[in-house]
Design brief:
The complex is a heterodimer. By secondary structure, chain A is mostly beta strands. Chain A is built from no helices and 12 strands. In chain A, the strands form 3 sheets. In chain A, strands 2, 5, 6, 10, 11 and 12 form a 6-stranded mixed β-sheet that branches. Chain A has a 4-stranded antiparallel β-sheet with strand order 3-9-8-7, with no helix packed on it. The relative contact order of chain B is 0.33. The chains are: A mainly beta, B mainly beta.
Chain lengths: 117, 113
């Protein structure tokens, strides 16, 4: 079985300060990991993905995440928050599925990021 | 290239009414999915399809039916709507290769009174 835990339901930062959104996963197999962002009343947009290549993954808008197998973590970071980063963020795990298998996605509960001026 | 589109964007139904949500993608993806999003519960998979003419149940399929008559379209039907189906519905699609990340539509906000 696979699961995802986002350790904070809400994170609040000031503009220009670092962002850390925490995610732990459990998976019996080699997972693919993703971070998605959802702005209010919008669909989900892919920020970045880890698929067993480099453990430090860079995404869009200055975000990056580090895959740490020993800690089963995939935390999302950004050096300097911008007002436009205010949104909900989802950590997602997909079981490795070879061939044409579907590969179920499991979503975390989401972390709402608030950015103060 | 519009990506994934959904119709309608908003809908209000009375209990017992039926409706169909339409999802269309122009990325030639084989896989398509329907999710519902409820506060504090993330996204939950309703049904999915791995190709034209095929569908399968996800985590929460009860009360919904789907059809994939054309590769680019995936329809979600509610035959007899219930207040518990008040939610935001998202469609997504993905390819069969690489990391298979899913691309999401903008969502449909459904209220059942």
């Amino acid at each position: 079985a696979q699961s995802v835990t986002q350790l904070d339901s809400h994170v609040s930062v000031s503009e220009g300060t670092p962002v850390l959104l925490r995610c732990n996963y459990s998976s019996s197999y080699s997972p693919s990991l993703f971070w998605y962002v959802q702005h209010p009343n919008k669909g989900l947009q892919l920020l970045l993905k880890y698929t067993s290549a480099a453990t430090l993954v860079k995404g869009i808008n200055g975000f990056e995440a580090e895959f740490k197998k020993s800690e089963t973590s995939f935390h999302l970071t950004k050096p300097s928050a911008h007002m436009s980063d205010a949104a909900e963020y989802f950590c997602v795990v997909r079981l490795y599925a070879g061939g044409t298998s579907y590969g179920k996605l499991t979503f975390g509960q989401g972390t709402i990021l608030t950015v103060h001026p | 290239n519009a990506g994934v589109t959904q119709t309608p964007k908003f809908r209000v139904l009375k209990t017992g009414q039926s409706m169909t949500l339409l999802c269309a993608q122009d990325m030639n993806h084989e896989y398509m999915y329907w999710y519902r999003q409820d506060p504090g519960m993330g996204l939950r998979l309703i049904h999915y399809s791995v190709g034209e003419g095929t569908t399968a149940k996800g985590e929460v399929p009860d009360g919904y039916n789907v059809s994939r008559l054309k590769k680019q379209n995936f329809l979600l039907g509610l035959e007899s709507a219930a207040p518990s189906q008040t939610s935001v519905y998202f469609c997504a699609s993905s390819s069969t290769s690489g990391s298979r990340e899913q691309y999401f539509g903008p969502g449909t906000r459904l209220t059942v009174t």
